Amino acid sequence: MKKTPKVIYCCQACGHQAPKWMGRCPDCGKWDTLAAETLMPAIGSGRGLAGFTEPVPIDSVPLDGEVRICTGVTEFDRVLGGGIVPGSLVLIGGDPGIGKSTLLLQVLSKLGANDRKVLYISGEESLRQLKMRSQRLSAVSPGLYVASEVDLDAILAMVAAHKPDALVIDSIQTMYSRDVVSGPGSISQVRESTMKLMVMAKQSGTPAFLIGHVTKEGAIAGPRLMEHMVDTVLYFEGDQNHVFRILRAVKNRFGSTNEIGVFEMKENGLTEVTNPSAVFLSERARNAPGSVVTACMEGTRPILVELQALISGSGFSTPRRTVLGLDYNRVSLLVAVMEKKLGLNIAGLDIFMNVAGGVRVSEPAVDLGIVSAMASSFLDRPVPDGLLLLGEVGLTGEVRGISHLETRIAEVRKMGFTRCIVPKNSLKQLAKIKDVDLIGIRRLPEVMEILFR
């Protein structure tokens, strides 16, 4: 007797499966996300003994001489860990219009100009649209091949026939596999398409880049399993109202997840920012209360950023707290420390914190800069010009040591700062540096005495 396909209802947000339709997903709690999908019956009983690949000792696995492929875009290679690894599967997500397609088209154009054959497949644009965009970006090279296709089986046949050195799928939510009955963009289609592309990349050694749409919460649309299957997950961050874009790795099997790449959006596409510190400090106002410069580490790269604070009287019973680019809970913790250890009555006032340039800073080494910026705004007294602050602040008001202090100080010296307040414990392990006066402190009151005496 012929088996009939089984219909299930799959949540398009989390992938939960249910035998009947429900208004609310019992797993993630979202409303009206269950859609009907058809499961095709399995072919064969599967009871036979399956063949297997004979395992080999790991020290006998050969490696090619050219392990990574350099794209020529230094910031992109830095985030990947030094270049593209053959056979890797990379997922890139970001808000609409942030520049994902622009970045990958420019990267493939660079590869195509270096005697490599690369393939860009778009499920959202026609060939004429791709040609117009590539001309605007000056991303036309003889080795760059383009195609407009959504059928995944046709794409895999195209890859097998042309054997490109790199492949881009724009976007994975538009791909359609004939083995799954549901429509493009569904949980089943995205999962099946990603699995087939992963198998193709591993077997042929062709590196593949998948562009993924994001939800309104900022996560990549589709099943969470997709991020586990790929080798690298990159997020393209930035505000459309700002010209700077930051490429950040949140998963990388072949490199660090702390590296970032900084780009500037211009009329002819994205350009690399080789010195982010100079860019982020270019518009800094001198002798302005509430403005402090500190140094954060993004992977192996030190970046100087400007922290801005504004403290004003509150017109509501509950004061406002607005924090952009910093950890909200960390700022609240430091406000409590300032109340208790410095005697500054700021808990009942509105507090606004911002990191200039749109960059996000999460490490505790910038605590001293946050405290100094808030104290400067509250007292309406600027921090002395040419002074930079580094240090982690504890709950008892002590200033704790930080890592990579020598690397940060080297960047401080390069940017022309002459004085730097650092934790005294870290200063003991640091060799003397010319042209920078290092001031070691142990507790917060010492910092306030130096800044506002």
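Above is the first protein from milestone M3; the second protein from the same milestone is given next.
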Amino acid sequence: MCGVVAIHNHSEAANLAYLGLHALQHRGQESAGVVSNHEGTLRAVRKMGLVADVFTVERLQRLRGNTAIGHVRYTTSGGSLPKNIQPLTAEFRDGPVAIAHNGNLINALALRDELEDQGSIFSSNSDTEVILQLMARSRERAFADRLADALRRVQGAYSIVLTTGDTLIAARDQDGIRPLLLGRVDGDDGAWVVASETCAFDLIGATVVRDIEPGELLIIEGAAEPRSVGIGVGSDSQHACVFEHVYFARPDSVLDGTSVYEARIAMGRQLASEWPVEADIVIPVPDSGVVAAMGYARASGLAFEMGLIRNHYVGRTFIEPKESIRHFGVKLKLNAVPHLLKGKRVVVVDDSIVRGTTSRKIVRMIRDAGALEVHVRISSPPVDYPCYYGIDTPTRGELIASNHNIEEIRAHLRADSLQYLSAEGLLAAVKRGAIVGKPTPGSAESGTNCGYCTACFTGSYPVPLSEAPVRRQLRLIEL
């Protein structure tokens, strides 16, 4: 999962891009980068690490220009290496180009093999570079036409921003799997903004104009109004990733007309309706389980307590005592509050269970704090299938739900009970998060027939898979 942001026609474009990346930090913590565009000359700052660590005042001052694009990355394709840090840049005959990409191309390896057979040489392991190589080989003359030509060849999920010359381009795949929105900064500049989530707009004082449509390529040149063209592979149905609402997006964002916060409240309410239990308090697994737990508590009439406290300043540690501190890895991030839990029957709400190792440690932590009973409630269905569209989920063999039924998972967690939100309940909850006046996937205003992608729960992939995509083994490792 990654986050992208782009600013066009603003005198402080790089500074705004940097702030936008701060708001999108939750979408990727491995690397961060900003490329500025000053009259066709690109300047880049790209490094491994968090946004606050990568950018200094001095580095930002070097990023001149009225256009800038930014990227935060969590590796899903190509490996966590410096050469894969985005935005990627390349030199074309007509000038340099920079691109930032959120998503995953499921036919990237096949296209890469084809391009290498034709003489292409790649400088990264990223699937994003395939788009640049396809553009370089396109016979179209205009830059936007080259991009559209390349995007017609790729399959999977992409929300991308590019800059070249005096142009900013944004594009979203034909299924609209990953979010991408257009905004405007009020003021003399009349700047345009593109970002993965609306929370980036809020931080820089931009207003939301609209969601970029599935299969849309949006061209912003100079101070002119954006010009929209179809990529030519549009779909009548949108398949927005439902897991954005379950976990990835920030609660204060609005995606495709749906409030993430209201959707998660509705998930918790629906979960309480489907799986009530006699208990004393409801606690969340912070931070992603907080809003759903609030919904569960409201619907059940139980008290909501923050029985687990998260340490937001963990960072990375290379010291891990083997025996002296039990559950060390989880304790770095979470700590139980014994006086809230002791002697209580506890409902603990989380967004999902992937491998089950962390959930088991959390249950043990709550019991060690004195809870009489621990009832686990999950605000999404069991994650039974891998995601190939930009979420770094394990292989199916590593997913606990694909190999065990709910009772077996409960026994593994050592919980008194375990229940998941149904797939039907999840979709109903997300739809209840729609904001009045905002077109949502499947509404007449959106022009699409929705649609959420639920492949990780159902195995029904909107982009057909001829075979499960695999990562190419790295042959050059940068140290």
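Note on the second protein: The CA atoms of residues 94 and 143 lie 9 Å apart.
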